[in-house]
């Protein structure tokens, strides 16, 4: 059923196919698809048959502390809140060798999680950073092919500011809601 979260979700389709619905917009997914679902967006799957997928749930503070750096700040900004998730770079498709590399990484992450040996959380944090970097790399490749890749303040963020302008709207709150780094969001705004 449709639901939402207070964290960013990275979904990777391991097998099968179906439709991903985000904020009421449907788009097809199949093996190799990776979809970022931003904080607070409603989403659900409708499969054509058996489907397996992996969810990586990323808290906003984990992103700021462990995953945000100068090399990927533009990628994180591009993952802001889209009105139409079928547009933009919130999803990618891995094929060939890249698909096998991502699935091998996911297998290793699952094995670490299942064993829970000493240091497994550190290994999972590092592996998550690698996974996110691979997704961003693929996003950049697909953006170059499509000519997309433009980041900016999205209409939904502006609407949130407008709807809450008589209350207290902090830079930190806007950054948290849209997964923008506060300093970069401030410069961009």
Question: Structural class, judged by helices and strands?
Answer: alpha+beta
Average pLDDT taken over every residue = 77
- Helical fraction: 40-55%
Biggest β-sheet: strands ordered side by side in the sheet: 6-1-4-7
Poorly predicted runs of 5 or more residues = 72-78, 80-89
Number of helices: 7
Coarse morphology: globular
Number of strands: 7
Task: Kindly estimate the percentage of residues that lie in beta strands according to DSSP.
Answer: 15-25%
Largest sheet: number of strands, sense, barrel closure: 4 strands, antiparallel
Listing every helix as H and every strand as E from the N terminus to the C terminus, the arrangement reads: EEEEEEHHEHHHHH
The rounded distance between the terminal residues' Cα atoms is 35 Å
Report Rg.
17 Å
Give short descriptive properties of this protein.
189 residues; four-stranded antiparallel sheet; 21% strand; 7 strands; three-stranded antiparallel sheet; alpha+beta; 45% helix
Give a quick precis of the structure.
The chain has 189 residues and is of the alpha+beta class. The chain has helices spanning 60-67, 73-78, 96-115, 120-146, 155-163, 171-178, 182-188; strands spanning 8-15, 17-22, 25-30, 33-37, 43-47, 52-58, 91-93.
Helix-strand blueprint:
Blueprint: E1 8-15, E2 17-22, E3 25-30, E4 33-37, E5 43-47, E6 52-58, H1 60-67, H2 73-78, E7 91-93, H3 96-115, H4 120-146, H5 155-163, H6 171-178, H7 182-188
Antiparallel strand pairs: 1-4, 1-6, 2-3, 2-5, 4-7
Helix pairs in contact: 3-4
């Amino acid at each position: 059923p449709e639901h939402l979260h207070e964290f960013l979700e990275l979904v990777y389709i391991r097998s099968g196919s179906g439709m991903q619905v985000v904020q009421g917009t449907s788009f097809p997914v199949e093996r190799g698809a990776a979809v970022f679902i931003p904080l607070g967006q409603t989403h659900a799957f409708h499969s054509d048959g058996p489907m397996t997928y992996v969810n990586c749930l990323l808290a906003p503070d984990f992103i700021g502390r462990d995953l945000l750096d100068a090399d990927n700040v533009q990628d994180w900004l591009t993952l802001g809140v889209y009105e139409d998730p079928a547009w933009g770079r919130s999803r990618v498709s891995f094929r060939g060798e890249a698909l096998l590399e991502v699935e091998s990484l996911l297998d290793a992450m699952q094995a670490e999680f299942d064993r829970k040996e000493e240091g497994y959380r550190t290994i999972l944090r590092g592996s998550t950073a690698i996974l996110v970097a691979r997704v961003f790399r693929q996003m950049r490749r697909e953006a170059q092919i499509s000519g997309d890749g433009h980041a900016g303040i999205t209409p939904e963020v502006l609407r949130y500011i407008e709807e809450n302008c008589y209350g207290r709207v902090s830079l930190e709150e806007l950054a948290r809601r849209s997964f923008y780094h506060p300093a970069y969001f401030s410069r961009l705004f």
